[in-house]
Amino acid sequence: MTQALPPPIPTLIPDSAPFTAEQRTWLNGFFAGLVSLDGFGVTALTPEQSAALMPGAAAEEDDGAPWHDQTMPLVERMKLAAGRPLQRRMMAAMAQQDCGQCGYDCEKYSVAIATKKEARLNLCVPGGKDTARMLKTLAEEIDAAPAPAAPAVIVDRAEQPAAPEGVPRRSRDNPATARFVSRARLNRQGSEKETWHVEFALPEGLDYTVGDSFGVCPHNDPALVAAVMAAIGAEPTMRIGGRPLDAVLTDAVSLSPAPDSLFQFVSYLTGGERRQKAKALAAGDDPDGDAASLDVLAAIEKFGGLACDPEAFVEALEPLQPRLYSISSSLKSSPGRVSLTVDAVKYATGRRMRLGVASTYLAERVMPGDATKVYVQKAHGFGLPADPATPVIMIGPGTGVAPFRAFLHERMATKAPGRNWLFFGHQRRDCDFFYEDELTGMKAAGTLTRLSLAWSRDGEQKFYVQDRMREVGRDLWAWIADGAHLYVCGDAKRMAKDVERTLVDIVAQHGVRSTDEAIAFVAELKKAGRYQQDVY
Q1: 399 and 372 part of one domain
Q2: Residue 352 included in any domain
Q3: What is the DSSP string of 338-351?
């Protein structure tokens, strides 16, 4: 039986409210997102209630964080946060992905810094240098600004479920040791990508829930380590802090984007034009237009090599950060194991091939039986609905399919009665259909109710998952009206943004709403936990 579609959302702000016509139009769209999704029954605000919503009437901590959008450039986020309390501006400086790489979400990381519970300003991996520089500037205000009110509880980094008696808590700063089990190539011959299914055996006391991420502490490429030592004229056996230099460069410091502190260090060792360039790079400028391509080795080579004290050189580098990957398995179907779906990142810059630190570590360098430092990062609001009968719609092109493979294995293992619809896409069906046998088997068994595919390079025109969504928009809306939860995993800058725009269009067309009402509807889906994203 088809559920009757709810009526269009009515006007919320009365004409008598103290707003201009333009303000009323915007507020109607915004506050429509605050209505109940169960029945869409709403009551127009009184003039007094409307006046209470004027700027300055709301509490600072309830500002809605309008900058919390991973597609918004840093400069625009900072404009939106201008004039806000220090911790809110710090939040705006972060990558807005709530990815957990820092061990927090964006809001809790900002509060931890502002309350001096966290001194490290470089933990936002997706934010990179831009975030670190902005946080450094903002941190200068900490002692001058009024102390922010700390929440009653700041969630500890990499929050873990209770471990068995005697087993230490495992976290980003206290990782466990897992054994690498295997890797298997997911692409077939002819693919332009290199993607791997990777498995680890979990140590005692470390478990996870589908939707969580797996933190891996990688090692730098030995060839890159050797090239860096040669560039500074250092011997591998030199000891730094009681360890050989090559070991420190392998697993303790980042050799990826050259940090500002390295350019500052270079400026102390050089003179003339080279010093000026190094100082400009340390300040965030780009005198030669190549700053984005400078990893540590390229930075050393740019300045003609460095005859320097290895210990001082190491101190000028950033710590090697762990990397997070969406978990693509379920403990209920694979006890004691965890699997990941990993794209090996490789690209040419100049005469060198650059390698993704963690991705090529997992794809090439770690061997079966090797020990690796790992931890589980609990999901920030990304997981299956509590009611197993709730239908779910999963949109995950490329490696974005990872958590949805986990969802499907979990729903299959628990015999969850809810319907499951997966949108998956990549470049070519013949060589990029990850987990094809599994997914088609789940479709045949009824676990996967619908499987919608999109291949961007198989036709004359590119065709993506959002294009497939438009084709089946009426059915998609029917699932949403029936209470389905939606999930998106993958690229934050383009795919996730395009999917959300498409969803708004589908809601407007098939839900018979204006664009503003459709935007508000999608906002309410997010607020209700029915539209969740795991983006990177």
Answers
A1: no
A2: yes
A3: EEEEEEPPEEEETT
Fill in the DSSP letter of residue 61: G
Q: Find the CATH number of the domain harbouring 484.
A: 3.40.50.80
The answer to whether residues 445 and 340 belong to one domain is: no
Read off the CATH number of the domain in which 291 is found: 1.20.990.10
Query: Are 256 and 200 contained in the same domain?
Result: no
Contact 66/32 with Cβ under 8 angstroms?
no
For every residue of 87-141, DSSP letters joined together read HHHHHHHS-S----TTSS-HHHHHHHHHTTS---S---TTTHHHHHHHHHHHHTT
User: Does residue 515 sit within a domain?
Assistant: yes
Copy the structure tokens of residue 428.
């070519």
What range does the domain containing 247 cover?
222-315
pTM of the model: 0.81
CATH of the domain at 359: 2.40.30.10
Tell which residue, 66, 96, 99, has the closest CA to residue 82: 66
Q: What is the pLDDT along the chain (536 residues), one digit of tens a residue?
A: 444 444 444 455 666 555 555 455 545 554 544 443 444 434 444 443 333 333 333 334 557 888 988 878 899 999 999 999 999 999 999 988 888 788 888 999 999 999 989 988 888 888 888 898 899 889 889 877 655 554 433 344 444 444 444 344 478 889 999 999 999 999 999 999 999 999 999 999 999 999 999 999 999 999 999 999 999 999 999 999 899 999 999 999 999 999 999 999 999 999 999 999 999 999 999 999 999 999 999 999 999 878 899 999 999 999 999 999 999 999 999 999 999 999 999 999 888 999 999 999 999 999 999 999 999 999 988 999 999 999 999 999 999 999 999 999 999 999 999 999 999 999 999 999 999 999 999 999 999 999 999 999 999 999 999 999 999 999 999 999 999 999 999 998 889 999 999 999 999 999 999 999 999 999 999 999 999 999 88
Crossing angle for the helix pair 402-413 and 436-445, to the nearest 10 degrees = 40
Are both 502 and 401 inside the same structural domain?
Answer: yes
Asked if residue 463 lies in contact with residue 397, where contact means CB atoms within 8 angstroms, the answer is: no
